[in-house]
Design a protein that fits this description.
Length: 196
């Protein structure tokens, strides 16, 4: 495996779109940085198994969000009702999780990245929240995976990861199909040229 030293964060972020591709499958990256997310992006780039890389990114984001909100009750939960549900005519409880099968009296029993990123307007107006753009490591995902992170609520971690991994396969599939078509066109052309 070849070694590649990434000069700085500027280089990392500008070239990340190419570093994450199969072209760097046999390259081990390193960077000298004190920034914890930068170090983890490089760690993710060094995981060459695409499924394991997806899992690493997912768990890293969940951990980052959990530690950011640790000890803060920004939804103002009181007697199982969030600040929005404490209004006079609201009979609901358990906040946004009230209709989810993974919700229990002890809270969520799984780890859903979309849910961890979601906060309603009331909360966003008055609190500092971590947003999608704050998780730069998500740039390592493809377009479909990025869209999924935005709204895949009410899903178990395992289901979520499976869907993220499947979207990786279909991207591969499309790429492979394109390669086969290109190859066929090339071979046909070559055959025609030889018979002339
Ligand atoms: S995000 Fe808003 S609606 Fe959801 S639990 Fe928090 S306060 Fe309630
Ligand atoms: S998966 Fe989401 S909606 Fe369901 S309990 Fe967990 S945080 Fe709530």
């Amino acid at each position: 495996m070849k070694n590649k030293v990434i000069k700085d964060e500027k280089q990392l972020y500008s070239k990340m779109f190419i570093y994450k591709t199969f072209l760097y499958s046999f390259v081990k990256f390193s960077i000298d940085s004190q920034d914890e997310e930068t170090v983890n992006i490089v760690k993710a780039l060094n995981i060459k198994n695409p499924f394991k890389r997806v899992e690493f990114i997912y768990d890293y984001c969940c951990k980052k969000l959990d530690s950011f909100y640790e000890g803060k009750n920004i939804c103002g939960f009181k007697n199982n009702k969030c600040i929005v549900q404490q209004g006079p005519n609201c009979k609901f409880c358990n906040g946004c999780c009230r209709l989810c099968r993974y919700q229990t009296t002890k809270g969520c029993t799984t780890s859903n990245l979309s849910c961890k990123l979601f906060y309603c307007d009331t909360i966003q107006k008055n609190n500092e929240t971590l947003k999608y753009k704050d998780l730069k490591i998500l740039k390592l995902f493809n377009l479909r995976q990025k869209m999924m992170v935005n709204d895949n609520f009410f899903a178990h971690r395992k289901e979520f990861l499976l869907e993220l991994k499947l979207s990786l396969i279909s991207f591969w599939g499309i790429r492979m199909l394109l390669r086969i078509i290109k190859n066929l066109i090339y071979c046909k052309k070559l055959k025609r040229e030889r018979t002339q």
